[in-house]
Design a protein that fits this description.
Strand order of the largest sheet: 3-2-1-4-5-6-10
Oligomer: single chain
Distance between the termini: 46 Å
CATH superfamily of the largest domain: NAD(P)-binding Rossmann-like Domain
Shape: globular
Structural class: alpha/beta
Largest sheet: 7 strands, parallel
Strand content: 5-15%
CATH topology of the largest domain: Rossmann fold
Radius of gyration: 20 Å
Order of helices and strands: EHEEHEHHEHEEHEEHEHEHH
CATH class of the largest domain: Alpha Beta
CATH architecture of the largest domain: 3-Layer(aba) Sandwich
Length: 322
């Protein structure tokens, strides 16, 4: 099966590429833009014509759309540029899938919820409170508008047919980073570098997920598609099947920092917990999501935060020590 992956050079994309490229039964085309070195194909998916060229060359049956501007504060600073990627490019990708009869897996976020009434289920009311969440919800709706009723190659509507897309909502990510700033989780380790007295947010509960776990979940959805699983049936007319993934344990950012310090054997007494909401783009307080739909496909989280976060950030401290 031909699979097209967008955002392949990003933190999540690299993990998905590593996992799927091991499969002999998948022909993977991995797309990147600013960091498009081989084996990635360079394409600007904000350009619908570039998307059309990708589809003509790769002929995908399944598309994993992971490309996005995922940093809420960056979205707030340049909403037009973020919208071009998070909304317009998603709409163009969904339209291309409809024309070519491909299935779209759209990567969304727990920030489509306002964080006031967890746990959240796939059909829980959505109410994003920052521009990033608003844009990702618009992306979900773009995919549904193009593909919820099913589509046939050439763009003909399949009416009440099976949906040709699904959504996977994910939380804050962490994993092997190219620089500490690449993830808002590993970015906290910069405080261990500076070791200056500071207050660290201890207000919102987050459910960090390792990119390897998310890649495993994506693989489960691809396999469900290949097996024509009823889990990918529409839950209601005009709706897409929605899967949700939360990390198994809640952490505030202060608690993440303490876990990093323990993993590295460092003293973090310079940091004090701050119970006030963070500055910048509004964040939900608790977006714990129900994961039972994903678990029905056989997914189980395999990575423990306390163990994995140390492995992710240790190379930067080893380089300092040398």
């Amino acid at each position: 099966m031909n699979v097209l992956l967008t955002g392949a050079s990003g933190l999540l994309g690299r993990a998905v590429f590593a996992r799927l490229s091991k499969r002999d039964d998948l022909a993977l085309t991995a797309v990147a833009y600013s960091r498009a070195t081989p084996p990635y194909v360079k394409a600007d998916i904000r350009d619908p014509e570039a998307i059309e060229r990708l589809f003509a060359a790769a002929k995908p049956a399944f598309v994993v759309h992971a490309a996005a501007e995922r940093r809420p504060d960056v979205v707030d600073k340049d909403p037009a540029q973020a919208r071009a990627l998070n909304v317009a490019a998603t709409g163009a990708m969904a339209a291309a899938c409809a024309r070519h009869g491909a299935f779209l897996l759209y990567i969304s976020t727990d920030y489509v919820f306002d964080g006031t009434n967890p746990p959240y289920y796939p059909d829980s009311p959505v109410h994003p409170i920052n521009e990033y969440g608003i844009m990702k919800l618009e992306g979900e709706r773009c995919a549904a508008a193009a593909l919820a009723g099913g589509a046939q190659a050439g763009g003909a509507s399949a009416g009440a047919g099976k949906p040709r897309a699904c959504t996977l909502r994910i939380p804050i990510l962490y994993g092997p980073v190219e620089r500490l700033e690449e993830s808002s989780v590993s970015e906290l380790a910069l405080l261990l570098v500076r070791r200056e007295p500071c207050a660290v947010e201890h207000w919102a509960s987050r459910y960090p997920a390792h990119v390897d776990d998310i890649a495993a979940a994506i693989e489960k959805i691809i396999d469900a598609y290949a097996a024509d699983s009823p889990a990918l049936a529409s839950p209601a007319p005009g709706k897409l099947p929605t899967f949700q993934l939360s990390g198994p344990r809640p952490f505030t950012k202060y608690e993440m920092l303490m876990s990093m310090a323990r993993a590295l054997g460092m003293d973090a007494s310079f940091a004090r917990p701050n119970a006030a909401p963070p500055a910048g783009a509004p964040r939900p307080k608790d977006c714990r999501m129900d994961t039972s739909a994903l678990e029905s496909l056989g997914y189980r989280p395999a990575v423990d935060f306390d163990e994995a976060i140390g492995r992710a950030i240790a190379p930067f401290f080893q380089a300092q020590a040398r």
